[in-house]
Amino acid sequence: MEQYTVTGMSCAACSTRVEKAVAKVDGVTSCSVSLLTNSMGVEGSAAAGDIIKAVEDAGYEAAVKGKNVDTAASTGQSANEEMLKDHETPVLKQRLWASIGFLLVLMYFSMGHMMWNWPIPGFFQDNHVAMGLLQLILTTIIMVINQKFFVNGYKSLFHGAPNMDTLVALGSTAAFVYSTYALFAMTGAQVKGDMDAVMSYMHEFYFESAAMILTLITVGKMLEARSKGRTTNALKSLMKLAPKTATVLRSGVETEVPIGEVQKGDVFVVRPGENIPVDGIIIEGNSAINESALTGESIPVDKAVGDGVSAATLNQSGFLKCEAVRVGEDTTLSQIIQMVSDAAATKAPIAKVADKVSGVFVPVVIALAVITILVWLVAGQSIGFALARGISVLVISCPCALGLATPVAIMVGNGMGAKHGIMFKNAVSLEEAGKMDIVALDKTGTITNGEPKVTDMIPAGGIGEAELLQYAFALEQKSEHPLARAILDYGKSTGVKALEVSDFAALPGNGLSAVYDQAELLGGNFTFISSKTQVPEEIRKQSEKLAEAGKTPLFFARGGELLGIIAVADVMKEDSPQAVKELQHMGIKVVMLTGDNERTAKAIGAQAGVDQVIAGVLPDGKESVIRSLKKQGKVAMVGDGINDAPALTRADIGIAIGAGTDIAIDAADVVLMKSRLSDVPAAIRLSRATLRNIHENLFWAFIYNVIGIPLAAGLWIPLFQWELNPMFGAAAMSLSSFCVVTNALRLNLFKMYDAGRDKLKKSKKKVEDVKMKKTMKIEGMMCGHCEARVKKCLEGLAQVDEAVVSHEAGTAVVTLNAEVDNAVLKETVEAQDYKVVSVE
């Protein structure tokens, strides 16, 4: 997505016009304009020059946005940071104070003297023309101060795309022009000596209304600008984290250079208390790194040689020497900033309704204002009365509130997520995440830590735990098996003495052997060890219990005698059971996917508390499982590995664990920087809160106009004598946008980790287990015993609920709870020495 800054927009009608203009450019596949950040995201092959020309032809200005957050190190200001800087509020504040100064004088003369007889200089006593001229001059000054409304408003009108400025400009112009006419008519009457006509025309002055409209709209604009600035605070704070300089080693000498000059492969040093300048790998030293800037996790993480470090994280204790691996736009921080920025430049589906309304809103309001004036004139009212009603319709109508209802909530919600390490890649993912019916969790690295740990030690009779561990450590230190690392890590943590072994060999059948002190050391599974030595019944039963609990029992023997069992397991993350429970309380079905055998999978699934376990899923089979689950409702897939990428893409919402692979993160819609499963319900909770806030904003924006426009038009005058002064209409218009933005800012107070207020999602579709059937044609079955063998092997698959086998028909009708590859079914049956002809 190529991003541009767009200037000159004042309301939703403007952004809609820009979108339509750019969408017509050849090569543009999609365009999304954000009124909130004055930015535009464009996808496609169109040239930047063509896009900018289209924007300019529509009456606005555009420029390609600088993407690199580090290139402006020399000035200490990034392009994105400069773009988000609040340039609008200071200008509006100056305009407002100047307007108020002249407005107070105008109000003193026009209303203070006329209504409450406040004293005025003798020159103006009974000199109504002089009084009128003074009001005209003061109003003209205020109109010049706020000329931007007229320049933008009429410019948009002449381009055939009237906006909010057009409404303000037309309203204040109408009031000013009619008042000027009344002034000249009054002057003529005074020359003729017709004092009754003079006094009549005095009451037709709307100079103060024209001035008040401009001043009140400026008040609203300033409040809106300040509030809009606060919605991007999270993004601004992320940008401020970007370090400006780095200390690199050049010819062995430490040299401080601007961050933009650091190249991949450079060696840089970081002292305690300094921020890491770019992403790198530690090549010397160790330290505790505070990563809260990126992950929201305040507890420091210990780092040593070989570990990765990220830009903007804080080195708290030791001296580090690192090699730069990702610089500039490639750093984790830059990618986070780009992700949040891209999300702000995209539109949520719900915004389309408001956009459609905004596109026709202003022309309709202008038409209503004209109709209002004509109706009151036909009804016999004076021109001044009819004009006041028309002006009220123009100035009370607010397309801005409609246009801001969605993007301000999206920006605040996105910022809240970023602050807690939850990154939504676009507005669609933020809106859709809360609508999920099912969450599918990959087991390894998502529910569990993804690293096997020693969980139990069961020494044989006469053997101590220390002796068992010492021999196991000696045997496993030369093994490359993943489970060996668990024993080695555990041994190192307990300070076990390393014994030197010889003749090490990895044997077929999951076994290891070596020689120590002329005695053979053996290690492996039950089948391997039981073939080499006798295993007591009690030890065997204990190993079965460990296996049923999802653990892997490793047996060790020395000199033909059993030493004992060391159980290893991929330990569950501490927060996983609670996270699963929270998802279930939110009305979401939780499914666990794993390649483990059914017994291990069900044991882990029971510990986690998931609703359904799908075991034996091959790496390339996760995508087909997700496709099956989508038949039940909307599915979110949570994973971290390369083999999760297809499933993450297939799911309605893909959620990648931040510590996972870059491929998984690229394929996902939401990225969890902290790698904690509790962030999944938090992300869904935040999505629901944001969507609720958008609904509130849209409701008030629509209701405001539905109530305000009829009131301004004078619809209730015949019934209740409710008459709206144009000044109060302008005040209401000013406050409407401010209220919408303020309501969105309430999201900053939302507690996304508080499960106390969770509500069950109202699902249109009842989530049930997947039920599919496949018919297998099998040759070689001769009797009921054959049927039983085939039935048993098929029902041993986790995805199979039932297998109805007939040796007479030569078929097996398999009922599935999840998609399973035909090759898996075929291999399972053919392993029993039967031939599978087809699977349908």
What is the fold's blueprint, element by element?
Elements: E1 2-7, H1 12-23, E2 28-34, E3 39-44, H2 48-57, E4 61-64, H3 79-84, H4 88-116, H5 128-145, H6 147-158, H7 164-192, H8 195-202, H9 207-231, H10 233-240, E5 245-250, E6 253-258, E7 267-270, E8 279-284, E9 287-290, H11 292-295, E10 301-303, E11 308-309, E12 314-315, E13 320-326, H12 332-345, H13 351-378, H14 383-396, H15 399-419, E14 422-424, H16 427-432, E15 438-442, H17 443-447, E16 448-459, H18 465-476, H19 482-494, E17 502-507, E18 511-516, E19 519-524, H20 526-530, H21 537-548, E20 552-558, E21 561-572, H22 576-585, E22 589-593, H23 598-608, E23 612-614, H24 622-629, E24 635-639, H25 645-650, E25 653-657, H26 662-667, E26 670-672, H27 679-713, H28 717-720, H29 726-745, E27 772-779, H30 784-795, E28 800-806, E29 811-816, H31 822-830, E30 835-839
Helix pairs in contact: 1-13, 4-5, 4-9, 5-7, 5-9, 6-7, 7-8, 7-9, 7-14, 9-29, 12-15, 13-14, 13-15, 14-27, 14-29, 15-27, 15-29, 18-19, 27-29
Taking the alpha carbons of the first and last residues, their distance comes to: 43 Å
The largest β sheet comes out as: 7 strands, mixed
Helical run tally: 31
Helix/strand class: alpha+beta
- Percent range for β-strand residues: 15-25%
Q: Report Rg.
A: 36 Å
Low-confidence stretches: 67-77, 763-770
Number of strands: 30
Mean pLDDT metric: 82
Residues in helices, as a percent range? 40-55%
Shape: elongated
Strand order of the largest sheet: 14-26-25-24-15-22-23
